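If your schedule permits, I should be very grateful for your opinion on a structural question. I would ask you to consider whether the tokens describe a fold that such a sequence might reasonably adopt. Thank you for your consideration; the sequence and its tokens are set out here.
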Amino acid sequence: MSNRPDKKNQTILSGPSLTPYFLILFGASAGLASIIVLLAEIRSELGFSETGIGLAIAAGFGAAFVASLVMAPHADRGRAPAMLRGGLILGVVGLILLAVGQDLWHYMLGRAVFGFALGTAGPAARRTVIVADPENLGRNMGRLGAWDVGGFVTGPLIAAVLNNFGGFRFTFFVFAAGLATLLPVAFRAQPDSATRDEERLGLKGLLRIRRLIGAFFVVSAYFLFIGAFEAVWILEMDTRGASSATLAIGITLVALPIPLLSPLGGSLAQRYGARRWAIGGLVGITLLVIFFGLVPGVIALVAITMATAVLEGFAFPSAPMLVAAAVDEHRQASAQGLMAAVEVATAAVASFVFAVIYQSNGDTITWVIVGIVMAILLLIGAILTRPEDGQRVRPGVPIDLIRRLFR
């Protein structure tokens, strides 16, 4: 008798193809990056204030927050492919709204629709990537992060070229068309074969898991920085005299280390423990963030942000892995959706609050406050995620033998 598994068993073991999930998150991130890099252009052409820009950003994060809570549990019930397609279509609609908008509320609406798209597609992709191949969870989460941030890296360059050619409205139309071309890919997405939430538990009881709450504090520390970055860093680069082309190149440079290092970072987080990897990386990021407002000029700001991005690349996959380690297989999407809600809620509040602080006090005070709050959140997360046996937290799912259950 042959010891080779038949093709049917190989298909079951290998799980669904992750390519559609990678590609659509890439496209959505590129669209988001195009919105961010054109904020200064929109402010200049339409006369929005820094606070108005902060409100538009917060609207996007708020919509993503709602979507992550409402939509994520459906991925645990086998609907991840449909969520991926729905998120893609909403992303196209959001970009079109941004292309035709005139007033601030138009941009708030367009950013909100696009945020809902991200909140719908993101948990679906994470659920599938986590349960499809548990033995290579770290590598696959790193690849997902690489594609996600890869879109964020390439988006600004494309947006800058298109903006110089036809303006920001033309740019949004082109990005909407580009997302629409991914629809055939979205319809090839297949559901995973892992255990599903047959009891329809959704989010019920998740907030009673101590180490899951701790993981959320760790995530909050990182996304406090993300929200401040989106609301303050771009505007400060503009204030320091950076052109739209310089902004695009700067965003690309500071984001480039993340997709390059994420697959390796994910593998190392699985090998050495997601908790120590996430917290260690974020400690380094927190220390560097304080210096954002102390260095002079455009080049120095880009350089120190690139150093931060190197640490982000290594630590980026470890936070969702820390969340994955806290729950069972059939609740992965719900936990990841709740994590996404924490991410966007933190970033929404941070983007608005730090935009106001920046407008009143400048970047030096703003970034010092960001670093202090990050440190507090990180300390709480480190305490709550500490395992009782003092051993490394190895993430995975129940079918993975190396998983350490949090009970």
Summary: The mean pLDDT is 80.
